[in-house]
Design a protein that fits this description.
This protein has about 100 residues and is mostly helical. The chain has a single domain (about 1-95), classed as DnaJ domain (Helix Hairpins), CATH 1.10.287. The chain is built from 3 helices and no strands. It has helices at about 1-10, 20-35, 40-95. Helix 2 (about 20-35) packs antiparallel against helix 3 (about 40-95). The protein is elongated, with a radius of gyration of 23 Å.
Length: about 100
């Protein structure tokens, strides 16, 4: 979990950031550092390339984490739906004995 916190920090996002916020921040940061890569100073260009790689890794890991969390939440909700419908079906089945 510490890596996830670090990735949020690299991108300058808060813990509860949405996927849309993540994508917008990534695009904005990438635009800035891509401009720096055009610099005539080789050291400056190298630092910009390193930062771009760091930002891209943070983005990919956070995106994967957010999508995984989202899928898990959907699975839990779906499980509760199935459980709820199964219970209702059993209750209805029980009632049909008397009619």
């Amino acid at each position: 979990m510490k890596n996830i916190d670090l990735y949020y920090q690299i991108l300058g996002l808060n813990q509860g950031a949405s996927l849309e916020e993540l994508e917008k921040t990534y695009q904005d940061l990438l635009a800035v550092y891509t401009k720096y890569q055009i610099s005539h100073d080789p050291e400056f260009r190298l630092n910009a390339q390193k930062k771009t790689k760091e930002i891209t890794i943070a983005y990919e890991e956070l995106k994967s984490h957010l999508l995984k969390t989202h899928r898990q939440n959907l699975e839990v909700k779906e499980s509760f739906k199935i459980l709820h419908h199964t219970k209702r079906f059993r209750d209805l089945k029980w009632l049909t004995k008397y009619f």
